[in-house]
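Q: What structure does this chain adopt?
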Amino acid sequence: MEIKQLEIFACVARNLSFSKAAEELFISQPSVSAQISALEKALGTQLFARNTKEVSLTKTGLVFLAYAQKILSLRDQAVQGLKGEDRGASGTIDIVSSTIPAQHLLPEIIASFQKQWPNIVFRLEQADSQRAVQRMSSFRYDFGMVGTAPDASRFVCYPVFDDELVLAVPKGVRQRSESIRENFSEFMLRTPFVMREAGSGTRKEIETLLAKIGVDTASLRVPAYFSDAHSILLAVSCGMGASLVSKVAAKMYVDAGLIEAVEMGDPLFRRQIYLIHNKEVWLPPVQQAFADHARQFFMP
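A:
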């Protein structure tokens, strides 16, 4: 078993494609296949299930991936320790993120990080919080960024942003903000409420806080469900109803004069955005540098 084989194995596992791995590594697809076959022979087990349409990790392959990533990470740490911090290092960082951080937080964090590490390429995939956590379990991503804390026994969670849910209402709503805050439960029950889709971290936070203040979500008048905050904010601006949304997402619509945002002034409406990674994986130096950068980026 050679380090080069582990690199190729990790690349195929990340892309779930022999051809994409070959393109990324600048070698031929037959070479990738030959190296994976040699590795499987040396280990005495099948790492990938292959057919004409797709490639997937076997159960053994998924277990071995965690070990392979640890070995590659230790190799990187050893090299980095001898060379010192090398800001010219190249590589990729793969992130799966829920909607709010993908659209409003990560672009700013990544742009700032690349000023220090210009040769690091990011690949960002967007999903709701539930699916983002599920996809992290495949070990195909270095990090996830989500609006709800996942299982702490499986993931390391770094709080990176203190978010706030605000009540987005159509421009020119007659009821004053103070009155809405004082009679929030009543307002929610008589006003159409535009809701996020199931699986969204924001949806989960909304359901939790409404339950705490005695509002049954089954009693809400929901005219539509949307899969992202921008669609919800556009629906609110069109007069479809009100909605609870991230303050950072609402800011653009408020600044454009399309909606009004009522800040509730209650700790129940605050939440953390988390950067997460698998506990089984040791972070290589560049990935650790990004985790540290993300944790400190929004700190006062």
